Amino acid sequence: MAENRTFLWFSDIHLDPYYGTETAVLRDKMGFGENCQSPSKLTTHPLGDFGCDSPPELLDSLLQSAATQAKPDFVVITGDFVRHGNDILLPSPTIATQEILYTVSELIRTYLDAPVVPAVGNNDVTPDYYMDIQQPDDMLNMITRGLMPLWSEDNQEGMAAKAMFQEQFPQGGYYAHNVTSTITVLSLNTVLYATNRQPQYTEVDVDPLGQFQWMKEQLEMARQSQRNVFLIGHIPPTIGSYRHTQLWHEGYLETYYNMVQNYSDLVQAQLFGHIHTDEFRVHNTFPLFLTASFTPIYGSNPSYRVVTYDDKTGALLDYHVYYLDLTATSLTNATSVWQRGPSFTQAYGVPDMSLQSLKTIVEDLQNSTDTSIYWEAFLSRLHVYTHGSEVCDATCRKEWACTLSSMTAQQYHGCLKESSGRSGMVAALIVVVLAVGLAIIWGRNCWKRRHYSQTVEHHVAEEELPPLS
Predict the structure, then answer these.
(1) What is the pLDDT at residue 445?
(2) Nearest of 287, 303, 293 to residue 348 by alpha carbon
(3) Distance between CA atoms of residues 125 and 456, nearest Å
(4) Which of helix, strand or coil describes residue 214?
(5) Which of 378, 407, 436 is the last residue of a domain?
(6) Residue 383 and residue 428 in one domain
(7) Eight-class DSSP state of 54
(8) Same domain (yes/no): 28, 121
(9) Which residues contact 21 (CB under 8 A, 6 or more apart)?
(10) Is residue 388 in some structural domain?
(11) Which InterPro entries match (predicted)?
(12) Where are the beta strands (DSSP E) in 11-98?
């Protein structure tokens, strides 16, 4: 008999051990204005602040909260353990990156006793997005060393998982882990496919570091073993929702989605981070889930997810967001209260996290005003209950509906054009209806004027005249 089980999902931790010092990350470096480097932040905002990456106290708070959850089957971390800007703020960025990876990994293992599957993010390499596919060894070995504490050596299972990670990950930054008797998680190195990847070569490698071939082999093994598969990674195979730019090169998108389509009977989840907001995408035949960040640097409350799934089918059923309200948290007291928001199905009034449920949500959003319960749920969850009062006008709603249902920039712009075309047809129809109505009224008034101008003997009785319009 199937049983509903849970797993934890963290993303975009971006630990900044230098918070409150002159080498802290702050958005001011990118054109914003939060003074995360002031030592006063350690006393006034010990758990972090909007515009800053995560201080150690905030990560401790997260893991303490996560440790109180009913024991999860496993933990997935969809990339970006490391703070922003190591390469521009520190003299030895590679060493600092490895140290931050190691610190986060040690803390997670200290608090959580469950298999952990990490994915490499664009800030887990240095410089940002740097993955030289011709000479990747130094970078991949650095990340491998940084993540080593994630695997427990207290039992044979943990030692076997660690050995598998050490064997697979240095080949290309990808890794497979059988986290339960029915579920295999494939962790993908999405930096390889990013449009921002550096260095760029004039000749396109159709399968950088052999990840697609490895992915196909792993999916075939899962099919033969009758296992379900979760795909996780950092940079999602879709467009961003801020600039609506392509996050993956389209050639890689096509290869990836063809493979997912070919193994759609096995792939039960696609989980990604990177965008720092709580979103999803609807493809023709499978859904894509994108989680909000732990770091508050871009204005989202720190959060993580507890996901419920069917242990027999592997289907995702629901998830709760646990979050820390930074505005409401006492600035002088490091004690934190993590709140549980409404679940996905409660917020949107759908039975599960299936493709059909996502399509229903998109349709509800398309057909609703900015004050509807659907838009209220979507906008409040987007930045994890920090921007719940946002107003989304007709143009905004159109753009979001197209964003949620597009995987490529071309699809997005095509959707906008089609939507504008539909709006234009509706507007034209309204104009025609109004014109016809006005013509009828004008004609009736002309008829009346013509009869009133006749001689008295030709007048008909008043009651026989058309009623006044």
Answers:
(1) 45
(2) 287
(3) 96
(4) helix
(5) 407
(6) no
(7) B
(8) yes
(9) 37, 39
(10) yes
(11) ASM_C, ASMase/PPN1_MPP, Calcineurin-like_PHP, Metallo-depent_PP-like
(12) 75-77
